[in-house]
Amino acid sequence: MRSVIAFVPPGSYFYFRIDSLYYLFQLLEVNENQILVERFWSSTNVPSMEKLHQFDIKSACSELEEEEHDFEVIGRKEITETQLKEIAQFLRIKAGKSAREVEFLSLKKEALEAFKQEKYEEAVRLFSLAAPYSKYDMEIYEKRGLCYLKLAQYSNALADFDYYLIHDPGNELIQGAMNLAKQKLTN
Fold first, then answer.
1. Which helix (H) or strand (E) holds 17?
2. What is the DSSP string of 108-155?
3. I need a labelling partner for 90 at 20 to 30 A (CA). Which of 47, 63, 81, 179 fits?
4. CA dihedral for 166, 169, 174, 178, sign (positive or negative)
5. Distance of alpha carbon 141 from alpha carbon 44, whole angstroms
6. What is the pLDDT along the chain (187 residues), one digit of tens a residue?
7. pTM for the complete prediction?
């Protein structure tokens, strides 16, 4: 679809059908890395330029990832100033997200290295800096919990182990570490 859509002029409305639903888009921008579209809620109505008012906008600007569908162009309208602002905002957010991901991976790498070198206080500091970037990266909570356990900060270890076990309740190593932290805390 990327190669075909590259020849469709920006501002074009197009749709594709999956089962009984029609998915309508307005092409905002195409470059070598992405296709940006205004996305409308799917509908059982066949899209046409005369029926555009019947379709509600789902997303003012998003990336189009569906590549396997044949699509039909139904018309074109010029990209508005508001849409250009939406494109700029989307690209700023995407760039910020990429920068945060790079920062997260760097912090996590440093934290894992400190953990490996048994520099537990430094590892806790770095894992704590990395945690807000990715609250679902369970390795952060696993390793930080183990650091807290080594540092005899049992309440903090329990909090990390508890959070970890919500997402991976079958991890016997963390269950054992949690039990040890509970024992140390009650003694």
1. strand 12-18
2. HHHHHHHHHTT-HHHHHHHHHHHGGG-TT-HHHHHHHHHHHHHTT-HH
3. 47
4. positive
5. 46
6. 456 787 899 999 999 999 999 999 999 998 878 899 999 999 999 999 999 999 999 999 999 886 667 889 999 999 999 999 999 999 999 998 888 889 999 999 999 999 999 999 999 999 999 998 888 899 999 999 999 999 999 999 999 999 999 999 999 999 999 999 999 989 8
7. 0.60
